[in-house]
Amino acid sequence: MTETSNIYRNNKNNPELDEKFMKEAIKQAKKALELGETPIGCVIVRDNKIYARGYNRRNTDHTTLGHAEINAIKKASAKFGDWRLEDCTLYVTLEPCQMCAGAIVQARIPRVVIGTMSPKSGCAGSLMNILECHLFNHSCEVRRNVLQKECAELMSLFFKNLRMSLKHQNQAHNPQLHP
Amino acid sequence: MTETSNIYRNNKNNPELDEKFMKEAIKQAKKALELGETPIGCVIVRDNKIYARGYNRRNTDHTTLGHAEINAIKKASAKFGDWRLEDCTLYVTLEPCQMCAGAIVQARIPRVVIGTMSPKSGCAGSLMNILECHLFNHSCEVRRNVLQKECAELMSLFFKNLRMSLKHQNQAHNPQLHP
After folding, report:
1. Rg (CA), chain B
2. Is B69 marked active-site?
3. Which listed residue, of A20, A172, B105, B110, carries a Cα 20 to 30 Å from A98's Cα?
4. pTM for the full model?
5. A136 and B127: CB-CB below 8 Å?
């Protein structure tokens, strides 16, 4: 085991540190919520320091690549001047999709901490498990359900707001149906 | 079927058009080769017109996100002002990795044309098949082995050059072993 890999492994036995950094990812997710985006936030940590933050801006920035994890990985690559993020831990509020899980493996991030799982779209154990797939030349250690309740509540709030908004739009377009 | 989806489906029965656009992807791959990068190129086509080009710049740009497909998807999103690339065909010289296959599904690209397969890293049928996975809310039509020989030869040339370069470096560092 290399010296750098010890750094991220330390967090493995320090649940408080994981909660601390997940709180920072939740702060990022709230920024997405303020924009009306699905509230997903991410931070990338090395040596117990946050080097990159990201939140979902897919609709705002009109780009497929606007997911929280991709935004954070882009910033971390720029900060370290390297496409390999080999001694980092990535914290994300929602289980990554196939693109983001793929980017995490491509970046060779050794450890991933997930807030809440996404049964209908997640690729870290729900629909498939790209992060822990031993067919690839890299696989991650994954810790799940850190501050799960807070992360899931953010998602519920978003979908509740979305339903309300759609209901109001529907009423505005069809007033005769809603006297 | 929508009118736009007919546009990409037309190519399905037009192998000459597929070869024409794969040649353009090969031109992109050659740009990567000139930079000493793994030679992978990509174009994104709509209405039989190329809207975005990309080639592998991962080492040059020091970013995990420097793959050919990601670069092309980023440009296409910017050009169309939309994260959905729903009526496009993506041409790529090498079978996509897990990240790029994921990005293609996220972009809802309906049709993907692949030059040559990548048995050790590909995620469009080799190690797994993210493009044609019906667990997701989108899956692609895939055509494989278009101008396969040309695409595979580019890869062979790259690895041959890499082996030569490593051999010369080794000789330079250990001259006593190579009198």
Report:
1. 18
2. yes
3. A20
4. 0.91
5. yes
